[in-house]
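Supplementary Text 2. Reproducibility record for the structural model of the 146-residue chain.

All settings were left at their defaults, and a single model was retained for analysis rather than an ensemble. We include the record here because the model underlies the residue-level annotations in Supplementary Table 4.
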Amino acid sequence: MKINATSKLNILIQEDDFRLASAWESAFIQMGYVVTIVQNATEAKFAISKCKFNLVIVDLLYKYEGKFTPDGGLITIGHLRAQWNVKGQQWCKDVPIIAVSSENSNWDNIVSPLQMAESFGANLILNKPFSAQELVLSVKHFIEKD
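Retained model, structure tokens:
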């Protein structure tokens, strides 16, 4: 994991699908942003401790060796929103968080991961699949105000 802390506008992407994360990264780099990609909440927490981000995009469900693990985006959202009172980490309180996940009709009778993310403090929830361009358009107002 390479942490990019040199630019004024930094985006953190937590996504375990490397091809998808790379497509999103390319779209943001074309716009002039610096992007850090991590796979899980453990890596995200480390990146957050080293760099202030202007936007955080988290995939809610993390698969490792074909199995879902509890190291996904909900942990990252909770960590970010709890860090606002830590010296030097106040930016975590207001950083825009975009939560992404794949949902289907099987979530009808329970709270979906996207709904949980919203209640944890995500500013926007997006249901996969979507293109990199759709992601950029969806989050543009969050990053243009910086």
